[in-house]
From TrEMBL:
The gene is lpdA. Pfam families: Pyr_redox_2, Pyr_redox_dim. Residues 339-448 form the Pyridine nucleotide-disulphide oxidoreductase dimerisation domain. Its EC number is 1.8.1.4. One of its GO terms (biological process) is 2-oxoglutarate metabolic process. It comes from Candidatus Xianfuyuplasma coldseepsis. This is Dihydrolipoyl dehydrogenase. It catalyses: N(6)-[(R)-dihydrolipoyl]-L-lysyl-[protein] + NAD(+) = N(6)-[(R)-lipoyl]-L-lysyl-[protein] + NADH + H(+). GO terms for molecular function: dihydrolipoyl dehydrogenase (NADH) activity; flavin adenine dinucleotide binding. Belongs to the class-I pyridine nucleotide-disulfide oxidoreductase family.
């Protein structure tokens, strides 16, 4: 029977990062993965969606070529070839997942391709083999939640209803698509398919889409998001799915909308199959863990989507590193208030820290500074000047409480705020730091000046 220092079950961005780190520390590590290393993120989440969104962005730019002084005489001659779009996406995925396998090998991790069944906190079965370990990290991720809406089961059987996984493999673009759920994933698919010319209707039960973002960012974004192919209905409760339509209630009335395809994107549930023997404590979002990523079972840690705290790839990876630090190092805790989030539309949204609503709810004394993209040279040169940056800072030292960016490349720019916040930095440092010109990142410096007194270029 093989003996390990650590067994990791699940090879997504949580599990494979934890396994590589433990390998780097010279530990004997096994990683068990039932499908493909990279998990949801690399195989059908973060990366494939961004590869396809890039196609949508290029397509959009072709359609608006005249804005850049180019003439396309026959726009109808620009053809979307879904097979080639998917081929490009698959190539990117293959390269990355192959890369992860290479990294695992280099770190000396034994990878088992198979389903891991946990026997107890020291024993795991995989492919008729029994492995022994001192520590166990569970990183099995989550699966989409399918609500018990009448008719939805049949729609799934007929391939009319899809989750985020199946929708990436459509061979033909549907004429119309109904998205149930107005969260980040729903919005990204709405952007993708509506830009490609599919008529998309998004149905969200609460009174807002993207419930967790700053109100001011949302209201601007929703105006930008709606286009001739995208309709958003909030306070819309789906009650039934028929062979041709989705039925929903809004304002006390019943409505129906034609749906060739339906994307169900209303949350996930933890993958706990194969882990039953552990009797893990769960709550309504997932497996319960403390700030060290420990579960209620001795020497068993749970990271990533399966604990349901923040369903993001970089959170899964960080939690993996935190678990390793607590098993083999000096200990570390994760601060969820400094986790950046991104939404990949056109433009992008990125944010970290508190929203303005949260500052108010907490009774904080704060300053707010907003700088529009329209006053930034690079944004104008690139023809992408919709959006703004908003910095929230506390009033005594100008310490950054939250940063919210609606701009192209916002998801890259937010890292500056994360680092500043990690160093407990203030708007003064952000304003003092020399930013290259012309760049979009100058909006960070300008808004920081606005916290202190006034932005320069406005
Ligand atoms: C469409 C979409 C877009 C997304 N975009 C982003 C984004 O842009 N940025 C971002 O940060 N996040 C994004 N996410 C979320 C991100 O993909 C997840 O947060 C992340 O993958 C979670 O990582 P994980 O390691 O916890 O789990 P997963 O990635 O789900 O990996 C878990 C792995 O465990 C394996 N497994 C499960 N049970 C067993 C078992 N018993 N034995 C062996 N193996 C098992 C599974 O096969 C899987 O490979 C997106 C998600 C989706 C669906």
């Amino acid at each position: 029977m093989k003996q390990y220092d650590l067994i990791v079950v699940g090879g997504g961005p949580g599990g494979y990062v934890a396994a590589i780190k433990a390998g780097h520390l010279g530990k004997k590590v096994a990683l068990i993965e039932k499908d493909n290393v990279g998990g949801v993120c690399l195989n059908w989440g973060c990366i494939p969606t961004k590869a396809m969104l890039k196609t949508a962005k290029v397509y959009k730019q072709f359609l608006h070529a005249e804005d850049y002084g180019l003439t396309i005489n026959d726009k109808s001659a620009i053809t979307l070839n879904l097979a080639d779009i998917k081929k490009r996406k698959d190539k990117v995925v293959k390269r990355l997942t192959g890369g992860v396998r290479g990294l695992l090998k280099k770190a000396g991790v034994d990878v088992y391709d198979g389903f891991g069944t946990v026997v107890d906190n020291k024993t795991v079965n995989v492919n008729d083999e029994t492995l022994q370990t001192d520590y166990l990290i569970l990183a099995t991720g989550s699966h989409p939640f399918i609500p018990p809406i009448p008719g939805i089961e049949d729609a799934f059987k007929n391939n009319r209803a899809l989750t985020a996984k199946e929708i990436l493999d459509l061979d033909i673009l549907p004429k119309n698509l109904v998205i149930i759920g107005g969260g980040v994933i729903g919005v990204e698919f709405a952007t993708l398919y509506s830009t490609l010319g599919v008529d998309v209707t998004m149905l969200e039960m609460s009174d807002q889409i993207l419930t967790r973002i700053d109100d001011e960012v949302r209201s601007t974004y929703v105006k930008i998001l709606k286009n001739k192919h995208l309709t958003i209905h909030t306070q819309a409760k789906v009650t039934k799915v028929t062979d041709t339509h989705v039925i929903y209630e809004k304002d006390g009335k019943e409505h129906q909308i034609e749906a060739e395809k339906i994307l169900v994107s209303i949350g996930t549930r933890p993958n706990v199959k194969g882990l039953e023997a552990l009797n893990l404590e769960t709550n309504k979002v997932g497996v319960v863990t403390n700030e060290k990523m420990e579960t209620n079972v001795k020497n068993v840690y749970a990271i990533g989507d399966m604990n349901g705290i923040m369903m993001l790839a970089h959170v899964a990876s960080k939690e993996g590193l935190v678990a390793i630090e607590n098993i083999f190092g000096d200990g570390e805790e994760i601060n969820y208030e400094r986790v950046p989030s991104g939404i990949y539309g056109f433009p992008e949204i990125a944010y970290v820290g508190l929203t303005e609503q949260e500052c108010k709810e907490r009774g904080l004394s704060y300053k707010k500074s907003i700088f529009p993209l329209a006053a930034n040279g690079k944004a104008l040169a690139e023809g992408e000047s919709d959006g703004f940056i908003k910095i929230l800072a506390e009033t005594t030292y100008n310490e950054i409480l939250g940063m919210h960016i609606l701009a192209p490349n916002a998801t890259d720019m937010i890292a500056e705020a994360v680092t500043t916040m990690e160093l407990e930095g203030t708007a003064n440092e952000l304003a003092k730091a020399i930013h290259p010109h012309p760049t979009l990142s100058e909006i960070v410096m300008e808004a920081a000046h606005g916290v202190i007194d006034k932005p320069i270029h406005i």
